[in-house]
Prior knowledge:
Residues 1-31 form the signal peptide. The protein is an alpha/beta fold. It is built from 13 helices and 11 strands. It has a single domain (32-342), classed as Bacterial extracellular solute-binding protein, family 7 (D-Maltodextrin-Binding Protein, domain 2). Helices cover 49% and strands 18% of the residues. The chain has a 5-stranded mixed sheet with strand order 2-1-3-10-4. Strands 8-5-9-11 form a 4-stranded mixed sheet. Strands 6-7 form a two-stranded parallel sheet. The structure holds D-xylonic acid (TK8).
Amino acid sequence: MFETAKSLLLAAGLCVVGTTGLFTVGSAAQAADIGNRNIRFGYGLNEDSVQGRATAFFAEEVKKLSGGKMKVSGFGASTLGSDMQMQTALVGGVQEMMVGSTATLVGTVKEFGVFDFPFLFNNEKEADAVLDGPFGTKLLNKLEDKGLVALVYWENGFRNLTNKRRPVEKVEDLSGIKLRVMQNQVALEVFKSLGTNAVPMPFSELFSALETGVVDGQENPVATIQSSKFYEVQPYLTLTKHVYSPWVVMASKKWWDKLTNDEKDVIRKAAIASRDFERKDNRAGSEASMEALKKAGMKINAVSDAELDRMRAKVQPVIDHFSKEYGEELTKELMAEIKKARG
Ligand code: TK8
């Protein structure tokens, strides 16, 4: 009886080693240099979303790895502020952690704008390879000088277009649509070049802007369209998959510098585990999200390859312009990484 219990415990211990490689059992976590820490972790989507689930997963991992000493509290629906407001709070050391869009980091490290280049990645496999490889890591590391310790990329995913005016089947259908875009120059110029009346706005204001008619449409991945209930105010969904949006999990450098090495280790390991969980969850859920959006009454259409090619041609000058601005070396490096991922 006791023997069985002991071997079960051993098996559980081994399992922890297998998945995290950090501590064998709780007692080892206690022996490590870990103190009591309260960590406020902010995000923009609702609690019932991929961000909410991955934050809960991250909190659980941190709890496990720290023997219950480090406590992560998630704050969803932008209750701690928009992405940019949270970044400022992290830099100032008044908030510990957050996850937000690369698109909102361009004011800090402008090169993050490359991830707003349309049609950059063909699939998630390419995105994972580039983001987790030397290119993605290099951009994350640039944040450290600016007061942000970037840990991992999560996935928002391939963005699609919704609006209340009409189904978008060809470029011309975009003409004059008042479209909310993320707050960065690339997104703004891209959607201007496609003929929309593009309006930059924080995500935290988007639902009400759609509801009150301040804007006609927006673009986001299907999981986000569902979890943010945009189907309540947007009749048309067009599957453009025009750009892949990453999220970045970050910590305040001011706060990070006060952690012990063991505490940093806990956060790093938990962040990597949360990345794998979040991507799996997002990918597994996107078909169900499509079904839910259909059921909710959205009219969904795809765009022909020929029309997507026309969109590509329209946005190319914008990509060329910003490639120059970031330095052509950087874009070359990015393209080489993508080529490598394509094999
Ligand atoms: C949520 C945002 C959002 C992003 C946007 O935190 O702003 O449209 O796609 O999902 O990061």
